[in-house]
Amino acid sequence: MSNKRKRREALVYHSKPEPGKIKVIPSKNYRSQTDLALAYSPGVAYPCLEIDKNPDDVYKYTSKSNLVAVISNGTAVLGLGDIGPLASKPVMEGKGLLFKIFADIDVFDIEVDSSDIDEFVNTVKNIAPTFGGINLEDIKAPEAFEIERRLVEELDIPVMHDDQHGTAIISGAALINAVELAAKKIGDVKMVICGAGAAAISCAKMYRALGVKKKNIMMFDSKGLIHVKRENLSREKKMFSSQNVHIGSLEEAIKGSDVFIGLSKANMMTKEMLLSMNNDPIVFAMANPDPEIDYKVAKRTRDDIIMATGRSDHPNQVNNVLGFPFIFRGALDVRATKINEEMKMAAVYALAELAKEQVPEYVNIIYKEKKLSFGKDYIIPKPFDPRLISTIPLRVAKAAMDSGVANNPIENWEKYERTLESRKGDDNKIIRLLRAKAKLNPKKIIYTEADRLDVLKAAQIVYEDGIGIPILMGRNERIKKLMIEIDFNHDLKIIDLSLEKSKKLIRKYAKLFFKEREIKGKAITLSQSEKLLRRRDYFASMLVKIGEADALISGYSRSYPEVVKPILKVIGKAEGVRKIAATNLMLTSKGPIFLADTSININPKYNDLAYIALMTSSTAKMFGYNPVIAMLSYSNFGSSNHPMANKVERAVKFLNRIKPELVIDGPIQSDFALNKMMLKNKFDDSKLGNQKVNILVFPNLDAANITYKVIKELDGAKSIGPIMMGMDKPVHVLQLKASVEEIVNMSAIAVVDAQSRKE
User: Fold this and answer.
1) Which of 40, 185, 356, 653 is catalytic?
2) What domains are defined for the chain?
3) Annotation marks residue 40 as catalytic
4) pLDDT tens digits along 443-454
């Protein structure tokens, strides 16, 4: 991807469809006058008075308990330097996004226009009552040390400067495991630290706390080794001044060392330096974007090396997102007055131990690994490991309680763990898993409307992200023109049925289609076959049928029935399938749920309804869910004798007979299906019990289609689908004017579908 395109995409991402990356949304009802009277005047007075009587009630009646301020003055932004508070705002919003998606913590980003320590500290102190915690970000050293120290001392809420402690915590966990793998003792290792900024100082403190001896640490800044005879050293640097005044260079210091810590800039370490280290050298080259020594160079130079970087494209990424969301989560949940050393250390050991446990298959798929396991290339967990949210906060919370800084101790740990589990964000997980699965074995996808800009954009993402291999169908000139406009510079197959060279292929496939129709007793003339094969959906379907393409995506600009008809004629149903159907996976605010049949069957009979439920259950399993199915009706469990309710009841009885192991019940109204408490109170003998329903099967197309579109618009739910079920080949039809993201997701489904059929 060119830098020009990267820049364009980044700017569009931050500006469209609305500027920025985070927003505030109401957490209470606000639709009636009664709601508004409770939310504001006069109802709001009552919690105000309660808080006035008991200040701790602010956690009971407001969002303070889950609200963190990400605060910066923009003096040390990423690798961009002192660009000021205004220019730092996109980074702070990004930090807010990470807090939310990884730990379900709400954030206000605050940019302070001051580099004066006193002014900055006073500003933060004055706004602190709003927040449950303070995350300091991108503040230059040495001011960052003093700012954090004062705020920790003077505030009664958790304060952490992530640039300091995040890297220290993550690399500390990695160091524990690396030393173990190298069969060394942490108290004996000789360590060289290249860099002496906020992160380096904090890392050095952490390593000492883990057992590295001060006499064995040599720290270098831009002027050379920090030693006892150096003048004008800051208080922080003096803490790590070495007695080795005779050491003149980094090269000299590294010779015979066990550990190299890089927090400086690219290419500070040479191959010769690496070769001079002891056996099983530990190298954490964490400069971004380019490490102190190139990863591939280092691995070629020493096959016994244990290496970590700050990059995601190499093993052992030291990524702060492994720490700060989960540390704050634990601190907030017990209302800790600070984030102390005990809590940081708890996070360190929790991360180190987690790396030794069996890795979930989901993580292997996401990172395209056959089997991640504890070893030189896996010494710390991966950022998208779903276990982080249920592991790190729990340990941090316990450490806060044990060290006496928790104002709201946890009493029921099992309940707390379940609460943490519920914060995982399954919607993002599903999309990541889907795309990651596709990348494991990309398939050829034919797009019938590639001369439409959004379809072509989606095909570009599919190709460049490694999800699939697009075959582009449409007007050749139009496609090539659009490819230039969007910087899509790849030599992909383009099929334009209007060109002279396509006539031979049309005739070839028309003959095959003609013969097949003849065999099936549905004969048409050869000329009729040729006429049909000039249409994109017929031609594309033939490509999939004969194996020249693995999957088909169509339907962007035409009605669903119009697209489905030719696909059915050419490809048809899979063996044993009564009727094809479609399901939509809705990623709602309350979790993922499958809706069926959303696109095909207008008024299915009871046995068709039963098979729709079975096909949807198989689809849910493909996504990693254990099906829990509610067969919906306007009535509950026989309360009506109307034929519409009766057919649902018959479908449930039929499924109970042929698939007794299936968790299914009905007919049931949608609110009872989705509200476990309502169901338990009224129908406590239901098979759905306390389980969370994840499949809703509707009695007819009207109900299903209307519902999924209402949910999509009112809830803001993402929709994956309609997912075609029961076809003989992987073909998927888009909703009219589907978004680029929706097309990409459908493409991933098509690839995964194709993979499953060839396994």
Assistant:
1) 40
2) 165-318 (3.40.50.720), 434-497+535-570 (3.40.50.10950), 581-726 (3.40.50.10750)
3) yes
4) 999 999 999 999
